């Protein structure tokens, strides 16, 4: 799939159309190797610091809420890493996804100082710059269900209403989790299931701003589609007419 190579701190829109309905959990949704932030060599301090940080996050069994951050090193050799699992994913599946992400990201981005990978269950990113606590909406991409609904206008309105309700719930979360799921029945008796999520290091207003940016793309990405999602470094949302999240965990 085509993808942007712009640094994550740029807020310029990076558009990526991906016609998928439901992605497999073991297949990356997207990955970016951002050489603009510089490269490292196999025997460099950055490589050693990266290995240490990724090992620290991947082997962490104490955290059960699915949000991990770690930093190691100094100056331009400092590595900052973050992993976030979807809020309904159980701890074992979350850790498995993060371990897979660490392996795949180092395989596909062997010497870039900044990289990010998204799976259905988790996201992993690292950089030589400090990004914790920053709302970063770009680069982003969207995915949509191949099937359309019969009454697009009404359905679009109901999706937007549900996402706004969930947005308010998610942004009220704490520094461990900013995540919400819910459902609504449309006037045509379809049930919409949705989730929204921000990285928990964001302040409430930052989370609101990120999700507002994401839902503003609904008319472009998902007009009349039975399902859709927008994914960015700091937040994401998804909706479908079939339930795709785990109620027992949430």
Automatic annotation (TrEMBL):
One GO location term (cellular component): extracellular region
Pfam family, one: Stress-antifung
Leader peptide range in chain numbering: 1-23
Keywords: Repeat, Secreted, Signal
Domain of life: Eukaryota
Principal location: secreted
Annotated compartments: Secreted
Residues of the Gnk2-homologous domain: 28-131, 137-244
Family named by the database record: Belongs to the cysteine-rich repeat secretory protein family.
PANTHER family: CYSTEINE-RICH REPEAT SECRETORY PROTEIN 38, CYSTEINE-RICH REPEAT SECRETORY PROTEIN 38-RELATED
Protein name as it appears in the record: Gnk2-homologous domain-containing protein
Natural source organism: Citrus sinensis
